[in-house]
Amino acid sequence: MTRKTNMLFRLASAPAIIILTILFAFISTPAAAQAPDSMVVDVSKIRFYEQINDQSWLACLPKGTAKADNIASLPFRSENLLKYVWGFPDTLIEKDNVLKFILYNSADTAIEVLFSPAIYFSRITIYKASDESPNATIQEVPESITRKNLSYDGVRRLIVQPKERAVYYCSFNFVRTNINSFLPRLIENGYIPQWISTIRDKERVLDIFTYVVSGLLLLMVFYSLAVYLQSRNKEFIFYSVYTFCTATLLFLKSYLNLSATFFNYFYEEYLDFMIMSGSVFSYLFFVRRFVNTRQKYPALDTFLRVADWILLGLCAVYSIMYFTTEEYHLLNIMENQVIKIFFFLIGIVFILYSIKRKDPLLNYLVAGNFALIIFSILSLAIIQLKWDPSPVKGSIFNRALFYYEIGLVLELGFFLSGLAYKNRRDIIDRVKERERLKLENERKEFEKQVAVMAAQQQERDRISADMHDELGSGMTAIRLMSEIMKNKMKDQTYPELEKISSSANDLLSKMNTIIWTMKSSNDTLESLVAYIRAHATEYFDSTPISCTVQVPAVIPQVDVSGEKRRNIFLSVKEALNNIMKHSQASKACIEIITRDSKLVIKVSDNGIGINEEQLRRFGNGLSNMRRRMESIEGSFRIENDGMCTLIFEAPI
Fold it and tell me: In this structure, are residues 58 and 76 in contact, taking their beta carbons and an 8 Å threshold?
């Protein structure tokens, strides 16, 4: 081979030798040292906080098996962890998750940073190793260092020395809930409050809306208890429990957000679902009593009662599973694919059953449940499908809880409408019942009065019959005997005998008047008018006074009690007696008028009239007439207009 050829060969083979040398060096370099600079986090350049999901590796292994001697050799994946930010497979929750990342400090002083692997995590352990030989140098960082002087338990403290390049392994478990956020972060030391405030500010509008809804529900708790204290309706106790559970659920969901405490973890894992189940359980009891399903809708009452017992059993099974097993996928299936679907089926059956009924109260509850179900489905779609209804990033309209709360507000509004309808209906029913009882009492009182009046009339009829049969015959005998004595003693006149005859006649006339008054068959206006006319005609018969009686052409068929007839007749009789004794009249007139439910009797004469002296002289008779008319709510007055007229008015 010529010299020139050897030179060309050497020149051609030199790049190949260089390339082989570089490849050999790269292959022989340890895995940790081969990490590109883009995967190394310079802690001296962190300002405020930095997400390191693109600079981390993830490995998963069965729970309880992550140890210091096997962590460095795990098959870490460098896949994009952003897909696990909101929601990830249940298998990650049931495993020990190990996060690997490399930190470098380019500064001349040691730097402390705070590390957070996720939002909700537990059982966290930090390991540290040399970047050059991780397997030989890995060791656990004591909690006295990672938790030193930390006011927030959701982070761990890492210390990187000057110019140090170290590999960190973080072994942790997720809290058993489907709202975990897998987003590893490095936070500048001392900025924990600002970091939490920044994250919570993104939820500020939703938190305010949640607190407003919680306040409305709390007001409903007080309102329901106030209604119960007033009406003692037990359904409002169940509704107050329902609204209290719902208000507590929403309030704690916002208030405990990002709180790294045992209570918040327990709330997210177990308590929130139990509160929700308790609210549904109470609501079913409320519906049964509020609508009175036992009497109105027995089939619906049976369904709701059975649903309550089934729900109670499912919650008991869920509680046993929670406290006895670490497997999250069983709890998730029980919660989201069994019990919540059971909630949905209860609502659907209730709606389908109630739509066919023409009960407005039931329809108000159906409308509220329908709104809650629709917005709950929309909320679930946002969670499961990662759907953002609004194009504005971070908008409240992209938050699932917002739509669930909208459904609750609508359900509350329809309930208040139904409550207003029920109260109005109850008021109407109470008024009707009160009127019915009033009418019933009035009917009983009327029947009682009728019975008393019937007994009184029977007694009056008996007394009048006895007076007519016993006293009447006796008085008639006295009058006849006095007349016989007068005829036998024509030649001799005895004033006493005349007095006996006159007294007997007068007493017989008064007794006939009393008998007429007491007899119940005479309790009519027609009888009163006829009796007054007969008495006036007979009274002025064989006297120098001419008497006329004017009566209506048609006399109303009106009942007039014996007491009223007696007072009217005696007043008219007294007026006729005054005309006979004191008027010096030649004519007398009695005019009887019926108008406007009143009886008006005018007794007039053409005599000398009545002056002040006569009023004093005959005041007793006039006062008796006035007293008698006032006792039956009537009136009496005197008019002098050409003729002296006494006017008697009485209601009929």
Answer: yes
H runs (alpha helix) in 77-203:
90-93, 134-137, 143-146, 192-201
Could you tell me the strand order of the sheet in which 185-188 lies?
49-51, 185-188, 111-116, 156-160
DSSP H helices in 356-399: 360-385
What are the beta bridge partners of residue 599?
594, 650
**561-566: Cβ within 8 A, 24+ apart:** 561/523, 562/460, 562/517, 562/518, 562/519, 562/520, 562/522, 562/523, 563/632, 564/632, 564/650, 565/517, 565/522, 565/523, 565/527, 565/528, 565/531, 566/513, 566/514, 566/517
Q: Among all chains, which residue has been given the structure tokens 């894992």?
A: 269
Q: Return d(Cα 647, Cα 598) in angstroms, integer.
A: 12
Report mean pLDDT in 10-residue bins for the chain, 652 residues: 34 36 36 61 89 86 83 78 61 84 92 89 88 85 85 88 92 84 86 83 86 92 89 88 93 87 90 92 91 89 93 94 87 87 90 86 88 87 78 81 89 87 84 89 87 75 64 67 70 68 72 73 86 88 88 87 87 89 88 88 88 59 87 89 87 86
Question: How far apart (Å, rounded) are the C-alpha atoms in residues 298 and 344?
Answer: 21
Cross-strand pairs, 129: 167
Neighbours of 576 (CB within 10 A): 21
**Full-model pTM:** 0.63
- Structural contact between residues 172 and 123, judged by C-beta atoms closer than 8 angstroms: yes
Q: Is 268:214 a contact under the CB 8 Å cutoff?
A: no
Element holding 277 (H helix, E strand): helix 272-291
Residue 567 φ/ψ, nearest 5 degrees: -70, -40
Structure tokens at 596: 């406007």
H/E element, 514: helix 495-518
CA distance linking residue 381 with residue 157, whole number of Å: 38
Helices 204-231 and 235-255 pack at an angle, to 10 degrees, of 160
356-386 in b/e form (b: 16+ CB < 10 A) is eeeeebbbbbbbbbbbbbebbebbbebeeee
Q: Are 627 and 638 in contact (CB under 8 A)?
A: no
CB–CB of 533/590 below 8 Å? yes
